[in-house]
């Protein structure tokens, strides 16, 4: 798991770049500690020490551990989403290709140890911090659904097969791939090739029913 170098402050007022670097160090450090040690076993003071910042700096940015966890969720999803979108510009307007691509990206993302660990952490803290789980749902799950639904709607019009309910189709794809990975992954290690194959199969099943979209 990635370890951020402790921030080394310089004299004077920090620049915009330094402020961003401090925040990134805090969030990377907190994520690593939360996922490795468990949320309850990590103290804010320990995060500050590990990140190389003062407790005052940490609390000024994140006034509670729940607030810090929420920021970690947003930062993590943004990082993973940017990584997943790196090759989107190479896609064609073929709905089969795009749906398979989205399914494979979901499989790759949920196959990541960091993503699985964050999901387990959300399950463990959901009752105490429902707003944090809601944040992951909104910026992760709903974000993916929105991207896929827009593709389905736009390409449906282009192909002359408009989708009546693109959101539901997108929900089905995201839920089927991620749900299978989380359930099956809880019992065994899933080879990447198997995950990609299952992603293709889920996409193909939906594509076979395109007339009912």
Overview of this protein structure:
By secondary structure, this protein is mostly helical. The protein folds into two domains: 16-63, Orthogonal Bundle (Arc Repressor Mutant, subunit A), CATH 1.10.10; 69-212, Tetracycline Repressor, domain 2 (Orthogonal Bundle), CATH 1.10.357.10. Helix content is 72%, strand content 0%. The longest helix is centred in the C-terminal third of the chain and has 30 residues, at 130-159. Keywords: DNA-binding, Transcription, Transcription regulation. This is HTH tetR-type domain-containing protein. InterPro entries: Homeodomain-like_sf, HTH-type_TetR-like_transc_reg, HTH_TetR, Tet_transcr_reg_TetR-rel_C_sf. It comes from Sphingobium quisquiliarum P25.
The gist of it:
Residues 43-62 bind DNA. The protein is mainly α. Helices cover 72% and strands 0% of the residues.
Attribute tags:
single chain, 213 residues, mainly alpha, Arc Repressor Mutant, subunit A, Tetracycline Repressor, domain 2, 2 domains, transcription, DNA-binding transcription factor activity, Tet_transcr_reg_TetR-rel_C_sf
């Amino acid at each position: 798991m990635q370890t951020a170098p402790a921030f080394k402050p310089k004299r004077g007022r920090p620049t915009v770049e330094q402020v961003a670097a401090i925040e990134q160090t805090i969030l990377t450090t907190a994520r690593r500690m939360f996922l490795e040690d468990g949320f309850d076993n990590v103290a804010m003071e320990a995060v500050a020490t590990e990140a190389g910042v003062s407790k005052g700096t940490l609390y000024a940015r994140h006034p509670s551990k729940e607030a810090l966890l929420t920021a970690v969720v947003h930062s993590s999803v943004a990082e993973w989403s940017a990584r997943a979108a790196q090759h989107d510009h190479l896609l064609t307007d073929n709905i089969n290709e795009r749906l398979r691509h989205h399914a494979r990206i979901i499989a790759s993302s949920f196959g990541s140890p960091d993503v699985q660990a964050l999901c387990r952490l959300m399950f463990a803290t959901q009752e105490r911090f429902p707003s944090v789980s809601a944040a992951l749902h909104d910026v992760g799950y709903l974000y993916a659904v929105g991207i896929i639904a827009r593709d389905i709607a736009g390409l449906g019009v282009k192909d002359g097969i408009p989708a009546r309910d693109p959101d539901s189709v997108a929900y089905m794809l995201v839920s089927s791939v991620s749900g299978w990975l989380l359930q099956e992954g809880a019992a065994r290690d899933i080879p990447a090739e198997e995950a990609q194959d299952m992603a293709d199969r889920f996409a193909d099943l939906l594509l076979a029913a395109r007339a009912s979209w």
